[in-house]
User: Fold this.
Amino acid sequence: MDRAIGTSGRIAFASAMRNLLADVYPEHDHAELVRRVFDVLDLPLEGDGAEPCEENLRKWDQRDAFLITYGDSISRDGHHGLESLGDFYRTWLKDWLTGIHILPFHPFTSDDGFSVSDFSSLRPELGTWDDVKALSKDATVMADLVANHISASHVWFQQFLAGEKPGVDYIKTASPDDDLSDVVRPRSHPLLSKVTTSDGEKHVWCTFSYDQVDLDYGNPDVFFEILKIVLEYLKHGVRVVRLDAIGFIWKVAGTSSINLDQTHKIIKALRLATTAVHPDVLFITETNLPLLENLSYFGNQDEAHLIYNFSLPPVIIHALLSGRSDCIRKCIMSMPPAPAGCTFFNFTASHDGIGLRPAENLIPDADIDAMTDHARRMGGQVSYRSLKGGGQKAYELNVTLFSMLAENFAGDRTYGLERFVMSQAIAMSLEGVPAIYVQSIFATENDQTGYEETGIPRRLNRKIWQLEEAEERLSEEGIAKRAFDQLRALMSIRMGQPAFHPNATQYTLNLGPELLGVWRQSHLNDQSIFCVFNLTDQVQDLDLSKINLIMTEGWTDLLSQQVIEDFNGILPLAPYQIVWISNIDGRNRIDSRLLQRYRDAMPV
Assistant:
């Protein structure tokens, strides 16, 4: 426990917790529920202590960026996965990526970790809690809490089958006669799985697969079990908790069973309870949903600290494949500034595929169809979800980002590297904390072997790298090294710019269909950066009179170091060129070695 709550804080905390739990569990003794929260947190019901002050803690700034990886994405014979990951991170990434999101590291039975069979330990091949603690000394560690379901091999489900406590009361069941027609889910198999228990035949709710049985949060004991898991993570050095599939946790027949009010209140209760003893904890919600539904997880600045910017990957890819900025500009303009104390988690690729639901109402259906056709043409697969009333709809593109961008809709392969680097640069430039998936670090192409051996489409994007092979790929001349050097230089340059603070002001520019432009302005208004991207394979002219270059200040492109002298002139942009035009002299802020690294990695 980091600290105890003082008298006034304890009273306010108890009152807020009581209100939340009373709304979620109206039939239960609310005073008893609050007492149990104090017990789990090991907080005294009486007495004085220091007041937690979450709002005064530094949450993030422009220096922060994350690596997204499995614990064994970097492997080495004779070493634990997390040990090898740590060695790779310290050698290659520590100076430009400050955090590591480790995807599920517990023992599991399916779905590459997302079917957890034991929350109390790590998979032996990955290491132990001590390895997580060791990583936390060098990086901000994000851990994945699979909150919606457990493996069918988990002891709780085995207890459910046997009619034993506590698991008998932890599993969500329903009747085939219930109205489940409105239930929203990302899979096409039937929702309910028939099982035989000591009490007869029952039907368990399985949102994702029959090996992933859903927990019943209608039982407050489940809430307390999840709270204990969060506290265990924090005890071992985790600072950011990713709540996987959290939007599905509360189910009610006759409803969509997603994003229900009780779901939001449970997240708020988890945050309220945890920050009482760990004020520096951050929660991020994984809700792969259309924009407005996703934004709701900020709550009233009392729910998620960060939410995934799920709309970003499909609109970035669409912009680079089509050479048009209309859809991505619409997306950026639709994103309101994050509330105080909150921000977005900007990513372009992840362990999952490229989600298409967040592109709804942003990308026309015809263009979505073109993207699915393009993914197949580039060696990828397409996953589908069932629709109400029958039929299916493309849900996810299973393909690596590098393979997806290797050519555009017109069939051009000349600028695949430039499109790929630009996809990352766009994410770095927008409001929020950027994150790079481990396969993007290596500019990985589709892992056809992994897919063919397993038949799992997502394996195309989940290659496991041997450490020696990974280091050779980044050391030897080639496209992967050039991509890596550019990303490292871009992120390193970004770290020194206050206008790239995750909460710095952002304006969307209208520079025509071929160019994407955003204007970032620091909190103190002492730096502006105009980020402009040529989305095409042709030279495009940037009319400088269309951006707000104040004439009393000097302006420099941070990347090329070109000084802008004619504020009403034309700046020609090469195919897929990136410019970060700043009013602070970049030469005084950027290590010349970074600039040289960036230039050397660019195509001749």
Observations:
- The chain has three domains: 66-147+220-500, 155-214, 505-601.
- Residues 155-214 form one domain.
